[in-house]
Specification:
- With 313 residues, the chain is α/β, with parallel strands linked by helices.
- It has 2 domains: 5-131 and 297-312, Pyruvate Kinase, Chain: A, domain 1 (3-Layer(aba) Sandwich), CATH 3.40.1380.20; 136-292, DNA integrity scanning protein, DisA, N-terminal domain (YojJ-like (1, 3-Layer(aba) Sandwich), CATH 3.40.1700.10.
- 30% of the residues lie in helices and 23% in strands.
- The chain has helices at residues 5-20, 36-39, 55-64, 79-92, 136-140, 148-164, 180-185, 208-217, 254-265; strands at residues 25-30, 48-52, 68-69, 101-106, 121-127, 173-177, 187-189, 223-226, 232-239, 269-273, 280-284, 287-292, 299-304, 310-312.
- A 7-stranded mixed sheet has the order 3-2-1-4-5-13-14, with helices on both faces.
- The longest helix is centred in the middle third of the chain and has 17 residues, at 148-164.
- The protein is elongated, with a radius of gyration of 22 Å.
Length: 313
């Protein structure tokens, strides 16, 4: 089926923008199947990154092999949130550098889930130089038995808490991942356990809906303990691990000392979010192994209309 006239016109505009502005990539968010052979006549596939909301479209693109498909769970996310997830994944998987310039094509008009629409919008996105995200390669450098998928889910959640806070207020919290039996033996509850009574599926941090709920729980005092399989086990836990033999930078508070201590006394990974700065520190064997700073200027959006006038988005 040929591309809609509107989509073809936008593809031509996107290519011209990418050439004139020396953009690093063209990001295409599609809700429908497209004629990819026709599409590549408008845009070089070497510059194209694709996110498909439809799983069938995603899988068929994977089989083609000549299109770079970003692996994210689109779910029911709003377009702008999905765009952010896609760009972060592109950086994490080293398909884009921080500070990249990206031309984005997408459907910007809200529609019913079962009534997908063709592409109708185009934006130019500058990824700020302060955009930082741990790559899979960074996390693989940790000598841990926690699966990479689980570790990334928790680290990403911690980074979002550090960047966003909750209800406009900064939030500090701590996660302890793995070696759960030993961690629980060195902890005591400060309050009721909000995870009690829920099924494992309802506590799995690999599910984005669960992560959103945990962000609310993170406002409570105490650590959140997560098993190596990604199941949230307990929250509001006081970590009672001795901190002897640990050296941390001046200015780090009790949350960071607890994260360092539990990571030294067990095989768990401690992940602390600073309430004051939003920084995320990852502890192993009593030391800070990795650190993520929050977004300072994460993205600047500019919208384009077909007359070529731009206004701030």
């Amino acid at each position: 089926m040929p591309l809609p006239t509107q989509t073809s016109a936008l593809l031509k505009v996107a290519r011209k923008l990418a050439e004139d502005l020396a953009a690093d990539a063209i990001l295409l968010l599609t809700e429908t199947e497209l004629d990819w052979d026709e599409l590549k006549q408008h845009i070089p596939l070497t510059k194209l990154l694709v996110v498909a909301r439809n799983k069938k479209v995603h899988d068929s693109l994977r089989l083609r092999g000549d299109v770079t498909v970003l692996d994210i769970d689109p779910g029911p996310s709003p377009t702008q949130e999905l765009m952010s997830m896609a760009l972060l994944e592109a950086i994490a998987s080293e398909k884009l550098p921080t500070g990249a310039h990206v031309v984005a094509l997408y459907n910007g008009i809200g529609v019913e889930v079962d009534m997908p629409e063709p592409i109708d919008s185009i934006s130019l996105i500058h990824l700020g130089e302060h955009l930082e995200r741990l790559s899979a390669q960074d996390l693989r450098g940790l000598d841990t038995q926690v699966p990479l998928e689980v570790l990334r889910a928790v680290v990403d959640m911690a980074a979002e808490i550090g960047r966003e806070g909750r209800e406009g207020q900064p939030v500090g919290t701590m996660f302890v991942v793995g070696d759960t039996k030993k961690v629980l033996a060195m902890s005591r509850p400060l309050n009721f356990n909000p995870f009690r009574g829920y099924s494992p599926e309802e506590r799995d941090v690999r599910d984005r809906r669960v992560r959103e709920q945990i962000k609310d729980i993170a406002q409570l005092e105490g650590a959140i303990i997560i098993r190596r399989d990604g199941i949230a086990e307990a929250a509001c836990m006081y970590i009672d691990a001795p901190a002897e033999g640990i050296t941390l930078s001046r200015g780090l508070g009790t949350r960071h000392w607890a994260g360092a201590a539990i990571s030294k006394k067990t095989k768990a990974i401690g992940i602390a979010v600073s309430q004051s700065s939003g920084s995320v520190r990852i502890f192993q064997d009593g030391q800070v192994m990795l650190q993520i700073e929050p977004f300072l200027r994460p993205m600047i959006w500019r919208k384009f209309d077909m007359d070529g006038d731009a206004d701030a988005g």
